[in-house]
Design a protein that fits this description.
This protein has 405 residues and is mainly beta. It has three domains: 2-153 and 252-273, Thrombin, subunit H, CATH 2.40.10; 157-250, Thrombin, subunit H (Beta Barrel); 281-400, no CATH class. The chain has helices at 11-21, 49-56, 95-98, 250-263, 317-320, 346-358; strands at residues 2-4, 7-8, 36-38, 60-67, 70-82, 89-93, 103-111, 117-130, 135-140, 152-153, 165-170, 179-194, 198-205, 217-220, 224-233, 235-236, 239-240, 245-249, 265-267, 270-273, 281-282, 285-293, 301-309, 325-332, 335-338, 365-377, 383-387, 392-397, 399-400. The strands form six sheets. Strands 22, 23, 24, 25, 26, 27 and 28 form a seven-stranded antiparallel β-sheet that branches. Strand 24 and strand 25 (335-338) form a beta hairpin. The radius of gyration is 23 Å and the shape is elongated.
């Protein structure tokens, strides 16, 4: 099954974390203008993998996200630093690592000259997050005089080739921070359906990845960041799966992170406005398929694309509430896409719908033609679902997506 690599912490872990957070309130300095250094260090030529890993391991941190119902753990990579003298550092991670969290901490690794290792826990603030891109940015401010190590992005992740040697660094199981695994790039641009997000174009690797690795770095042998780990398969159609893991390509991760940093606003010592990726639309739709009778006569069946509002923030919530609808077509800026072709498979319908929704931008005009899904009593065997013959429409203008915890 396709899964995201966030690790849910146990109750015992939450208790320890709550003690750790005591007195760790995070404060910004009150500026709202950002000049940020993003990974400007040029890639180095290392004598050995050991030398390279010693340099880049401190760029990967353990991320803990605490909500009202518990805590989860993932990873992150230090990618930038403010140049305004505030000693503020920016950490990229996954949206699904921070989603639902209200308090965050990061554990930063230090390696001394005698190779002894230690970690320092910092309270972190959410800068902004993008569900569609599965990218979020956190910020920390170590004491003045404390310098953190920045990761260096590869110049262009589109040039990374199949067979490139890569190293994943992260926090597997939420307890083994700084773990390194090794493999190759198995494919560079896979269209992958990711649970809760939709179709993403991801880099595939056979590097060993486990829960807690989400948000960690995938590095090449020159120590350059080529991707941000976010998902993998552990089973498929009942078969156990090994070595099918995925990362967000560095170009995409960097673009989203820079946008989130650029658009966030700090005021009065806190983040007053969360960052966003301009143009990303808030849709909040659940997409699926269902085999429905075409009328209450129950004389014929057809496979329908179905949609429902995933939250009260969905533009369709006021019209549909939480009910599912049988979709006839979706029109975006005057271009209509039908979803009633005969012989179309469930996979094809959901794939096309997810791709279409992913391409909708803030400001686009969207019209969805749909039929209500009805039921009739069927005695002992329950109820049959079928579609109303009336085709209705709902039209809206897609709004800007801004994540607010």
């Amino acid at each position: 099954m396709k899964h995201l690599h966030r690790k849910i912490l146990t109750a015992a872990s939450v208790v320890c974390l709550a003690a750790l957070l005591g007195g760790c309130a995070f404060g910004f300095g009150g500026t709202s203008t950002y000049t940020v250094t993003m990974s400007e260090k040029t890639a180095s030529v290392f004598v050995s993998a050991e030398e390279m890993l010693e340099e880049i391991r401190p760029t990967v941190v353990d991320v803990t996200s605490v909500s009202a119902t518990g805590a989860s753990a993932g990873s992150g990579v230090i990618i930038g630093a403010a140049t305004d003298g505030t000693n503020e550092y920016f950490i990229v991670t996954n949206h699904h690592v921070i989603e639902g969290g209200t308090t965050f901490t990061v554990d930063v690794l230090s390696i001394a000259e005698d190779d002894t290792e230690s970690t320092t826990v910092y309270s972190a603030a959410l800068v902004g997050s993008s569900l569609k891109r599965d990218i979020a940015v956190l910020a920390v401010r170590p004491p003045r005089g404390t310098e953190l190590t920045l990761a260096s992005f590869v110049d262009d992740s589109d040039t990374v080739k199949v067979g490139t040697e890569v190293f994943a660094i992260g926090n597997p199981l939420g307890i083994l921070g700084g773990t390194v695994t090794h493999g190759i790039v198995s494919a560079t641009k896979r269209a992958v359906a990711v649970s809760g997000i939709g179709t993403m174009t991801l880099m595939q690797t056979d590097t060993s990845i486990n829960g807690g690795n989400s948000g960690g770095g995938l590095f090449d042998s020159a120590g350059r960041l080529v991707g941000i780990i976010n998902s993998g398969y552990d089973s498929y159609n009942g078969q156990n799966v090994e070595g099918l893991n995925f990362a967000i390509p560095a170009n995409d991760a960097k673009y989203a992170a820079e946008a989130l940093i650029e658009t966030h606003v700090e005021s009065g010592g806190t983040v007053s406005e969360y960052g966003y990726v301009k143009g990303d639309a808030r849709m909040d739709l659940n997409v699926s398929t269902a085999t429905l009778f075409t009328s209450s006569a129950l004389d014929a069946q057809s496979v329908y694309l179905t949609m429902s509002a995933a939250s009260a923030q969905s533009p369709l919530y006021s019209a549909w509430s939480t009910g599912s609808k049988a979709v006839v077509s979706v029109t975006v800026n005057g271009e209509t896409h039908s979803f009633l072709e005969s012989g179309t498979s469930s996979y094809s319908l959901t794939r096309r719908a997810n791709d279409l929704i992913a391409g909708i931008a803030a400001g686009d005009t969207v019209t969805i033609a749909y039929r209500d899904i009805l039921t009739r009593s069927a005695g002992f065997f329950g109820s049959y679902s079928y579609t109303d013959s009336t085709v209705r429409e709902v039209t809206f203008t897609a709004s800007q997506y801004i994540y607010k915890p």
